[in-house]
Amino acid sequence: MISKSLEEYLKTIYVLKKQNGKIRVTDIAEKMNCSKPSVNKAINNLKEEKLLNYEVYGEIELTKEGEDLAKKVLEAYDIVYLFLKDVLNLDEEEAKSEAEKIKSSINDNTINKLAKYVHHVLGLRNLDCNYDINKEKCRSCIKRTAKKKGENVSIKS
After folding, report:
1. What one-character DSSP code corresponds to residue 88?
2. pLDDT at 132
3. Which of 49, 64, 65, 124 has its CA 20 to 30 A from that of 136?
4. Are residues 49 and 82 in the same domain?
5. Residue 157 lies in a domain
6. 114 and 140 share a domain?
7. What DSSP state is assigned to residue 134?
8. Which residues of the chain have pLDDT under 50?
9. Do 143 and 78 reside in the same domain of the chain?
10. Helices 64-82 & 92-103, crossing angle to 10 degrees?
11. Is 55 exposed, middle or buried (0-12, 13-18, 19+ CB in 10 A)?
């Protein structure tokens, strides 16, 4: 198990990889608003955990385990964000900021229960996946699919 701080580095690396293809230490430092030495230390720790491959001045690449964990971290953030934005009706920026803080302090069991609640409140009752963040069973739920396509999903109370 890695620290919440390393989870954030892992998530950032995953997102940058998806956005840019290649990732540099400088990109991570800029995105996370931290120093290059901090990034290097985190990279070395993630490498020790076998979550990424990296040689000095080389390309940073997530291992399969690293990518899976990064997706899990992102999924947890998404669930908290949806709850804050669509259930509690926080504005988008506040929901993003609060989701980061909350996600880093709750465990998987709480995330799973929150996901089930969010799905119920948002009217996504046809999800018979028995949501489990560790098994990534809800990656194609109606809400997520509609958002990607730019459609609106009606929220049922």
Report:
1. S
2. 52
3. 49
4. no
5. no
6. yes
7. T
8. 126-128, 130, 136-137, 139-157
9. yes
10. 130
11. exposed
